[in-house]
Amino acid sequence: MNDQWHVQPAGALRGEIGVNGDKSVSHRALLIGSVCEGAVRVTGFGPSADTLATRDAMRSLGVRIDDLGDGELVVHGVGLRGLRAPAEPIDARNAGTLMRLLPGLLAGQPEGTFVLDGDESLRRRPMRRVAEPLARMGAAITTTDDRAPLTVVAGAPLAAIDYQPPVASAQVKSCLLLAGLAADGTTRVIEPITSRDHTERLLMAAGARIERFPGRVEVQRSERLVLDRIEVPGDISSAAFLIAAATLLPESHIFLRGIGINPGRTGMLTVLERMGARISVFDRRLTEAGEPIANIEVRAAELIATEIEPEIVPSLIDELPLLALLACCARGRTVVRGAEDLKAKESDRIASVAQALTACGARIESTSDGWKIRGVPARLRGGTIDPQGDHRIAMMGAIAGLHSEQGVRVTDPACIAVSFPGFREILAAAVAVRERE
Ligand code: S3P
User: Fold this and answer.
1) Do domains 4-20+233-433 and 23-215+226-231 have the same CATH topology?
2) pTM greater than 0.85 (yes/no)
3) Catalytic site residue 318?
């Protein structure tokens, strides 16, 4: 608990760097694989505290999951209506994606009372955003004053609805699509800005009746899903930390292989290009389950300020802490708008990012929906960052440390295991390659 990580300034990042399997796709591989008919082989699974919470949750619901090691799992699907209520509450730990997607599947079960709970941080996050539309479909679901614990009493017949989530959210959309598999009629989710569509792609590959139109997605009731294999791409949200470090540190040059480039996830690459970064995306291909992946090459670059507008926010929502750091080290004034949902993440990220970067000498001011940043194209001074239990703030702090004068002390770095358990070692190896040259 009292572990601290003192990240020293670094010269450059070099070499080929592997990252863990994508967290969003790993959760969905387990959730959707569990309701397929028969065995689904998953490769490239990213074991992290969050995705292991999903693995354990699905096991507690009666799904056999064989862990063959090295990112390979076999999920023995029990069919769309085959989940069984465990005696104990399901512990989602810190995993928001599990807590918000699973009720969609549970609402469609023929029977059982399911209670979902989480850790202290997850218990602070809003859950009405899924409970309210599920209740409109006819589900018997209750929250504890908009928060976890959540209870779903299955067995109520579900009817399709048309729904436009008030905040662009792939978690809400996915929850409703999963419930739509058990609802009579056509469930429509209206999304003016398309968020990550991993659920749609996997469900389509599994034979669900899903149709996509500009600004909306529709699903019909399904009786069975079948998927042989799911290849999980490398996690672009983990790769983002290495991309940021390589961009900031002069003479850096790195390669990342097999990274997911789902268009709902690549906003950071678009913004970095505008800022003058040197990033090439090549060898693009689609996995069998329909996810686009590619190799990415990054070289150091001098950055200029930009504006991050509300329309692009859903495709870089998890990368905003890093983009704030990059903007602090870019020439000119950057404004980020339309990101108020950052307040409902693992920490209030509008506040925690501003606090962390200010503590390192950056000039960043919080607004109600983002930040105003006065960038200086130089190393930060450095300092101490308390990530407040938020994995992405801890990792951003480490990257800030590499690009600082005095280093950055990250208190409580253990939270990094929520999404990227090997981060420290991977970073150390990439920096060490330079030192050995
Ligand atoms: C996720 C969606 C996003 C993202 C989260 C993972 C997902 O959340 O921030 O880390 O896997 O669907 P929202 O749906 O709340 O935007």
Assistant:
1) yes
2) yes
3) yes
